[in-house]
Amino acid sequence: MAPEKLIELAKEAMLRAYVPYSGYKVGAALLCADGTVYQGCNIENAAYGPTNCAERTAFFRAVYDGHRDFVSIAVCGGKDGVITGAFPPCGVCRQVMREFCGDDFVIYMVGAGNSYEARTLAEILPFSFSPAEHMGI
Ligand code: THU
């Protein structure tokens, strides 16, 4: 799938964000190895801590449905849904990616207009704690 299509789906997902506290809308579109795409948005909480990021919403929906092989994810976000710069996934979401993805998993960080930056998981999460290397899974 072309990155542009995945990015379009991430932007669509951003519209579902539940963000009464930060007003910061985030959307993600996760491409599975079989071509299925799972969309996710951030879902905030009055207690703040239980907030779920868009990327994890997409991953958890996919894993619940039985998917374990992933190719790439597009992520976008901005205050009130206005995208002003490339969106880097938070550290917790990077670790969730590590659970299910190899070094070559690609993250498309969506910027303003039609721009985006592509990085591999190895690039954005070097020297990481991994299920294979550290847990023998
Ligand atoms: N957020 C995400 O959805 N993904 C990230 O990778 C970083 C942050 C959300 C959480 C919160 O609802 C809002 O952005 C502001 O932190």
Summarize the SSE layout with pairings:
Elements (H helix, E strand, L loop, with lengths): L2 H12 L9 E9 L4 E5 L12 H11 L5 E10 L11 H10 L5 E5 L5 E5 H4 L6 H5 L2
Parallel strand pairs: 3-4
Antiparallel strand pairs: 1-2, 1-3, 4-5
Bound molecules: tetrahydrodeoxyuridine.
Small molecules held by this entry: tetrahydrodeoxyuridine
Q: Terminal Cα separation, in Å?
A: 29 Å
CATH topology heading: Cytidine Deaminase, domain 2
CATH architecture grouping: 3-Layer(aba) Sandwich
**What is the spatial order of strands in the main beta sheet?**
2-1-3-4-5
Explain this structure.
- It contains five helices and five strands, in the order αββαβαββαα.
- The N and C termini lie far apart (29 Å).
- 31% of the residues lie in helices and 25% in strands.
- The chain has one domain: Cytidine Deaminase, domain 2 (3-Layer(aba) Sandwich).
- The mean pLDDT is 97.
- The chain is α+β, with helices and mostly antiparallel strands.
- It has a five-stranded mixed beta sheet.
- Tetrahydrodeoxyuridine binds next to strand 1 and helix 2.
- Residues 19, 22, 24, 26, 42, 44, 51, 53-55, 89-90, 93 line the site of tetrahydrodeoxyuridine.
